[in-house]
Structure prediction request, 233 residues.
Amino acid sequence: QVQLQESGPGLVKPSQTLSLSCTVSGASIISSSHYWNWIRQPAGKGLEWIGRIYTSGSTKYNPFLKNRVTISVDTSKNQFSLKLTSVTAADTAIYYCARVPTSGRLGFDYWGLGTPVAVSS
Amino acid sequence: QSVLTQPPSVSGAPGQTVTISCTGTSSNIGADYDVHWYQQLPGSAPKLLIFGNSYRPSGVPDRFSGSKSGTSASLAITGLQPEDEADYYCQSFDSSLGGLYVFGTGTKVTVL
Prediction:
């Protein structure tokens, strides 16, 4: 079955860059039918979509984060990655990767377990 | 920045029916974008509960149902069970600001 797994440092210093990866198994990231996404959730708060990437490398980002976010894909590793620059305490959250079909009618159907990231000196 | 509004909490006794509303605007739900619902159990990742406004993925009990009208959507849980105690989020697409996926503010369901 489809599985997504996030990985990366759990602690990042303020003003530095947060880097996470999502490894996909049970599905090919070069699928033409899906977008691959990053979503985050601060402790005790709601979900915030960060951005998505398509197998071609085409991206779309949350306009509220756009200047700080880069999502890239490594098809050889069946993996996609997130970089968030100039982090502050407000970026402390659980970060999830998730898949969504390109049709737009099916929702985020598979999620990773999430990885907590704290921004602190 | 949640642009879909949900009640912070709802509660009900086992066997009762609870309904969660999700209110949007003309740039998301009202623009005919589909609404999806997620269940998040404590300490877990969200799980897709309803897609395309009213369809259940395989394995989701039929006591969960969704509907949409105008700029709002609703999730109903009939025959509430103790294991339904969780946070629930609606989600759609918003065409403003270049387009982005948006989530609701979230609703905590408590089984009394």
User: Anything to note?
Assistant: The CA atoms of residues 27 and 98 of chain B lie 11 Å apart. Strands of chain B lie at 9-12, 18-23, 36-40, 47-50, 64-69, 72-77, 86-94, 100-103, 107-111. Chain B touches chain A through 28 residues (CB under 8 Å). Chain B has a mean pLDDT of 96.
